[in-house]
């Protein structure tokens, strides 16, 4: 026993050094060893009401560029590919030259690629760029030379010339036509049919006139959203990205370590922890809850690590207002007793060896 006792004391001293020495675990005072190269790359930021207020004030996801909201569609102007139907009252030979038994489209007039249109007794007309009323007036004016006081009506059978293009996480991608009824952003999104569950609805990109605008469809659920006032115009492109890269990772002493996919633009710390069953009551340290947020360039700016003490129930209210960002890592550290127990389990074979050695010495002493 005289030899076993000093060895047991040495193991105990080693145990204390392994568990409680700086740099072995996260705590509010020291994330890494002081003076190490890593220490200058990490900035510890306590989560406080002031921090939450500052981040909320800097959130502009609900803001839509003024030039998008100021755009108001003008009257529809005809273009190449549009199919129109011209009615001349009391003159069926002009209205339906193919015969009334034919389908209506068979008597339609197609605007040719060069923007022109031919009509009997009228000749070729530059139809592209004109409104329906303007085209009707031209036809009536020219027909008046052969028809007394012609009554002319013009309608569009098929809209082709003005389009909006959808791509990405839509159920229906490709081009959709703009008609003489102005198309809103929400109507286009509805026609495209968003793939629920796999689309990043907070990352919709509108490309217009060489510029890109980021639009958050999730903002429709918020107060004072003005997305429903946004109209689309010819040539607009809408790209809806997938959300497979927008995740938050929960690690450490939580009931279910896993990643969570953003379903909208907002995910707060309380929601994230609740989604994985919360903290492990037996093993977690409520004061060691961290949100690790990376940066694009580690050489120029430090990684931010946000810390909150969830031992207090009121802290959960604060966590509910702390918004997470894609690729954040939420880490919950273990309690001190958990570190001790884990170490014991790791050195248990050595402990057994010491016990066996002590028993052998006892046996030898007894024998003597």
TrEMBL record:
This protein's GO CC annotations: cell outer membrane; pore complex
Domain SLBB: 162-239, 246-332
InterPro entries the record matches: Poly_export (IPR049712), Poly_export_N (IPR003715), SLBB_dom (IPR054765)
GO MF, one example: porin activity
Family annotation (Gene3D superfamilies): Outer membrane lipoprotein wza domain like (3.10.560.10), wza like domain (3.30.1950.10)
A Pfam cross-reference name: Poly_export
Transmembrane regions listed in the UniProt entry: none
Highest taxon, organism lineage: Bacteria
GO biological process, one term: monoatomic ion transport
Topology class, membrane: Multi-pass membrane protein
Stated family: Belongs to the BexD/CtrA/VexA family.
Name this protein carries in UniProt: Capsular biosynthesis protein
Upper classification of the organism: Bacteria, Pseudomonadati, Pseudomonadota, Gammaproteobacteria, Pseudomonadales
